[in-house]
Every structure is written in C-alpha cells, then in structure tokens.
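Hi everyone,

Forwarding the result from last night's run.
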Amino acid sequence: MHILAGASFFIIVKLLLKYRFDFRPIYIVRIVYILILSFLLSPFRIVEFIFYSKKIKNQNVVKDPVFIIGHWRSGTTYLHNLLCNDEQFGFISTFQAFIPKAFIIGNPILKFGSSLSMPAKRPMDDVDVHPDYPQEDEFAISNQSTMSLYNCLYFPSFSNELAAKYLFFETISSKELINWKKMYLLLIKKITLANGGKQCMLKNPVNTCRIPVLLEMFPNAKFIYISRNAKETIASTKNMQLKFCEINSLESYDSQEMEENIVAMFYKMEEIYKQDRMLIPTANLVEVNYSDLVFKTEKVMQQIYEQLQLEGYTFAKQNIDKYILLQKNYKRFEYK
C-alpha cells in the first residue's frame, strides 16, 4: 500500500508537477499504481462531495478539539489509542485518514479493500495496524491537499522546504495559510460529523508547531504534550523516516542528509514549543513524560483528566484498562 494512493487524482498530478521525481523503474511503477488506484476511487469522491459537502460545511464543532502533540516517536500513538478508548471522544481512523475525501460513501466497501492492502504491523515498531484504529490527521491533510509536511515522505529532498512552509509556517503566504485553516476546519467538521458530533481527540506531531494558529481557530482547545528522551526519540524517528521513505518515496534520497535534517528539526520543534506553550491557558495544557506513560499509565491518565477537567474518566476507565492489558506483552525497542 502507498499512502498517496488515497489522494485525489488532481492532488497527485499537482504534486508530481511541483516536486522532482525519479524516472527509475521502481518509482515509475509506484506512480502508475498511485494514479490508477486514485482514478478508481474518483467516483466515490464525486458522490461524497455531491451528497455530503453541504452537511460537512454546516456541521457544528460544539466542543473544541483535544490536541495530542509532541515529537514523532515520543509516545503520541500509545497516548492517542488510550484516550480514544473513551467513547465520549471521536477520532479519525486509519481508513478515514488515508481516504479523507471518500470515507463516508466508501464505508464499508473501500474499508474492506484497504484492509486487504494494509500491513498487519507498522514497519518501524510492529504496532498493530487496522482500518478502524485511531490515526493522525496529518495523513488526511496530505491526501486532500498539497499543504502538508508529509509530502516529504514522497519527495525527501524537499524536506527542509516543506518543513519551513507547513511545519513551522515560516514561508507560507498569508493566502495559503487562510486556505490551510479553511481546509483543516472542514476536516475537523467532517471528523465530527462521522463521529456523531463527539468532541475530537486528535493526534498530530506536526501540530506541535502550530499552536498559535490552532488557538486562533479553537480558543478553548486543550493540549496534551508528550516528551521522551531526546536520544531515543531522534534514533526512533530516523528509523521511522527511513522505513516510510523506503515504501513511499518517489525519488532517490540521501539517508545521511535525512538524518541530519531530523536532528535539526527535533531541536527546532522543542524551541518553538517552549515559546508557544505560554500561549495556552494553564487549565488547557498538560505535559506528560513517555516513561511515566508506559510505567505509570493509570496515574498519568488520571492526571490528564483532572488537569484538563475532562469528565467521564470513571466510565472510560474500564475500556482504558482493557487496552492497557492488551499492550502488556508489547516489546518496545531499546535505543542505546
């Protein structure tokens, strides 16, 4: 499965024209596969637009989202999965994130097809993969627009340019930023609609550097920031990036240059978060540590609910405890 296959035909062509890609056989095969699958999904997107675009636009977001932020490989997925066991929250699933423009009409037909093409485990850490499991919304952003850092998975040589524009929002034009906010609001409205109006629990490491914009859009949003030992986080991110690019890249890339970019990005993201965290009201931010989450899970979950004044922990605890028990035998890779 290639992530970009869930994007619209127009978006894929626009990306191919905008960025450099290689004409080596392996990349041409990937591009042909992506274009064919995207073309086959087009009728679902068209029908969904006709019947649901107005409903999505008119959907109210009654409660501002809860955003899980922090660097990649810092425990955001585990934390997201834990919190999504609380039935009061809605989330975007893996199937929905990869086919963001057709997941309402395409369910269950496309979901069944995607389940056949998805790997059983994530390539970088052997975490279970399933169409219905919670997923980060940046994949949906990248598959319904060209305005995403994750385009670096397909065009690694443009990582710095994409980061400056869509991670740090440094070089993005005012017009494009307006378009990004409109697009992201519609995505959150669609997630809300798909989840029956529930408050969104969203996990997206890229949002770590978008706090000012997110607060402008959602003044009462709550944030959960998770951090991990720098050495482990960087080493794990390098492994993840290389695995993703092996499967998804549409051009040759320099792995050494990629690793250097990851290190620089890690420390820059930390600095930006330290500055922007002051913008978040104290009652709307909780910071947790990866090690505590793993070894003192129940204590950390109680802390999150209490500090953010989230209701319903007593009712959610049973489902959360079941998930913790299921993860008991998971072996985490040790980075030395």
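The CA atoms of residues 136 and 204 lie 5 Å apart.

Cheers,
N.
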